[in-house]
Amino acid sequence: MDEIQLLAVYRGQCAYIPNTFAQLDDSLLMTVCALHSSRLLIRHPSVMERLRKEVHSVLSDEEHPTREKIRKMPYLALVIKESLRLFPPVPMNNRTATKTTILPTGGGPDGTAPILVRRGELVAFGQYVLSRRKNIYGPDADKFRPERWEGHEPGIMSGWAYFPFHGGPRACLGQDFALMEVSYTVVRLLQAFPIIELPADEKRSEMIGSERQRLTLVLSSADGCRVELDRESKR
User: Fold this and answer.
1) Strands 21-24 and 92-96, how do they pair?
2) How confident is the model at residue 29 (pLDDT cuts 50, 70, 90)?
3) Cα torsion 226, 232, 234, 235: sign
4) CA dist., res. 1 & res. 7, Å (int)
5) Residue 14: what pLDDT?
6) Is 1 buried (19+), middle (13-18) or exposed (0-12) by CB count in 10 A?
7) Distance between CA atoms of residues 167 and 173, nearest Å
8) Phi, psi dihedral angles at 197 (to 5 degrees)
9) Roughly what angle, to the nearest 10 degrees, separates helices 175-192 and 74-86?
10) Cβ pair 56, 63 in contact under 8 A
11) Model confidence over 40-89: pLDDT tens digits?
12) Average pLDDT, stretch 185-213?
């Protein structure tokens, strides 16, 4: 195949890929690697196929999706939400108590007793761990299943069960922009490449969470995200 150009809608950059085997840099494609969307989609072809059908039904032959068109893709929103659940960009955070208070639950051997938090103490919390709790997301909490968000299954979205952009007065100001950026990039990748698959030497049955990860300020894949791209459909 001749050299192909993968349009990366992230900070206005472009990645030039010399052949169909692409090592997508997580610093360049926030959607594909940092959010692990590509890693999840290529290992769940039925999800990708449903998403392709939705994109085509909304856009048909249009090349560039608008904000209004993207908002008409509910399954796309579910895919991104599920990706953020399993791989939140900021998996850990903390806050310092400005006054002494009592948390109603979380203490004791079963987590139901109150906890005293004194003024000045640091309270750490992990979205990465919370997102995998089976008492919140069910027995398949460690599985990639966007459909769990359809109809808001019991336990999901209750309280602070899901907060990839955190919440309250210190919630991420760029949430809307980031979600739109991710959505646009995923749509354009699906439009540009009818074939997006795992290379033959990649693990096809990799358990979610078993891959090597890199944690700095944000969570990213330590090994990148290798995919096979083709502009020509095999059908």
Assistant:
1) unpaired
2) very low
3) positive
4) 17
5) 34
6) exposed
7) 10
8) -135, 170
9) 110
10) no
11) 888 889 999 999 999 999 998 887 899 999 999 999 999 999 998 988 88
12) 80
Q: Exposed, middle or buried: residue 119 (CB in 10 Å: 0-12, 13-18, 19+)?
A: exposed
- Return the amino acid letter for 11: R
For residues 233 and 191, the answer to whether their CB atoms sit within 8 Å is no
- Angle between the N-to-C axes of helices 45-59 and 175-192, in degrees from 0 to 180, rounded to the nearest 10: 90
Structure tokens, 179? 């979600």
- Give a three-class secondary structure readout of the chain: CCCEEEECCCCCCEEEECCCEEEECCCCCHHHHHCCHHHHHHCCHHHHHHHHHHHHHHHCCCCCCCHHHHCCCHHHHHHHHHHHHHCCCCCEEEEECCCCEEEEEEECCCCCEEEEECCCCEEEEEHHHHCCCHHHHCCCCCCCCHHHHCCCCCCCCCCCCCCCCCCHHHCCCCHHHHHHHHHHHHHHHHHHCCEEECCCCCCCCCCCCCCCEEECCCEEECCCEEEEEECCCCC
Condensed to tens digits (0 to 9), the pLDDT of residues 138-165 reads 899 999 999 999 876 555 556 678 888 8
Beta-ladder partners of 172: none
Global pTM reads 0.79
| Contact of 77 with 153, CB cutoff 8 Å | no
In angstroms, the CA 207 to CA 143 distance is 9
